[in-house]
From TrEMBL:
InterPro entries: Inner_ear_hair_cell_LOXHD (IPR052970), PLAT/LH2_dom (IPR001024), PLAT/LH2_dom_sf (IPR036392). Signal peptide: none annotated. This is PLAT domain-containing protein. It comes from Acrobeloides nanus. It comes from the Eukaryota. Residues 183-300 form the PLAT domain.
Amino acid sequence: MLLRESAHTPYRYVLNQARVRPREQDDSPYVKELLVTQMEGLSTKISKKKAQALEKSHWVLSMSLGDQCSLLPKVTLCGEEGSAEMEILNTTPTDWIISYSLKNVELGLLRKVRVEVDQSQRLNVFPEEGDNPENHVFIKKMRLCDTANGAELRFPSANVELIQYSVYEFPAIWPDYPPIQNVLYDVNVNTGNCEFENDFKVHLNLFGEKGDIGYRLLSTDLLRPYNFEPDSQQSFEIEAVSIGEITTAEITVDSYESNFEWQCKEIVVTDIETSMFYIFNFSKTFTPENRRQNCSVSLLTDSL
């Protein structure tokens, strides 16, 4: 006899032995016991023959925040077939809970949830007398549901604090797929000529075989832009869900100035987990007319 608690349980019990329990009294009923002899591991996937056709996903995210927050999180769902930003449903939290929605977008198997600070709007909160909302947001926990197909992902102890330019990624955990690990990337920037009057923001995005990391501000404290000096080297750390082998880097420069120049001679990205490094050489100087560039990874022989 085989026994499985549910289709989502990754094992089943095998009951190959039985015995009749002795009766306590002559008029007591006979009781037959089935004994567990072993446990077998099973997949929780449904066979293709039995699987029903999936409808277009309608994702709904509930996010529980800490008290006295003022910054509004921006949420992006990242899947095998692409990524899309969720729509905020209520900027005024109820019991410090806010909700997001995303529908009619095909993302494939969800890989991760990216959360950053929305730069265009803030939480609509009304502090009590004597309280001042702090310039941050603390995420306690999240629950993500596909209401069209019944899938559900929980992040019961997110416990992440975001400040002005923070970005954090949560790997999706599915029953039959091991989660992709968070890794640390060391980014070394070699600056050449640099002419500007006011600070400008440099955002870096990395693309690999498992998607991208999203635009990250190259800075040391995530509260203000970094001051790039001419003919210098700077090092930054970026934490993200692993994107596997990196293939492309993209840089965007934001500045209010009508005239500036920044020469990014070379970027070296090192995956601290695997010690693999990737070299990118940007051929053109960043100017108001050339604010965005992407570059494929250089072959080792090209960088020597």
